[in-house]
Amino acid sequence: MGAQESSERIPQHIAIIMDGNGRWAKKRGMPRTYGHKKGAETVRHVVEECANFGIKYLTLFGFSTENWSRPVEEVSELMSLIRYYIKSNAAELHKNGIRLRVIGERHRLEDDVIKIIESVEELTAQNTRLTLTIAFSYGARQELLHAVQKIAHMVELGEIEPKNISIDDISNNLMTANIPDPDLLIRTSGELRISNFLLWQIAYAELIFVDTLWPDFGRTEIDYAIAEFNRRERRFGGVSTTDQNK
Ligand code: IPE
Ligand code: IPE
Ligand code: MG
Hints:
binds magnesium ion; 15% strand; alpha/beta
């Protein structure tokens, strides 16, 4: 039974490291870029499924700071795909009440891609059904570095004292400001690492690793992840409610 029909808790925020496009294509004797195209279609379906489940925030890792080191042809194909994905889905995202945000080192993207991102972020800014955040040219260490630089600048201007810098000050200076931390982090393709994604924000996320390659990811895996989330007991450093008086 799917989570929709049961009394399962639905996570508020799911983050996904979408991995395995290259291997998916290779298994079919196709170039890696074919896997990326298929992966972009998967994004469309997954966004729809998550919105239908009532998930409020979905954050997808699409391209890391480190992915810039891939062959130029592959990087250029990934740029074309983000351009195409956002352009061709803008109207539908908006119609479905989805707000789009893109996080990452935006200045490294091509000018026209930046313009498309800005226009769709503006178009969908008031939507509240689901916030879709795409991490593109994103690295968590780079994000933290920028936050440190911004806060250091505030100190320099005398706006804040070093001893008064709070956890919230750090969160609020990240690119994910105003987005609650992920409840669930899923990585596809069987790799068991974080690869510089949302290091600060996943402090208490439940981690789920599935062997499915991203182009094959769908409803079955979402159902599994939500069911698994419900099996986990989140204690946030405390003790279980049943153990409190023992
Ligand atoms: C994930 O698939 C997409 C990106 C990182 C851009 P990969 O391209 O990493 O595919 P594998 O891991 O090589 O199979
Ligand atoms: C992480 O996948 C980045 C994205 C999914 C966008 P990679 O395939 O780049 O990560 P590594 O190289 O396996 O750590
Ligand atoms: Mg990979």
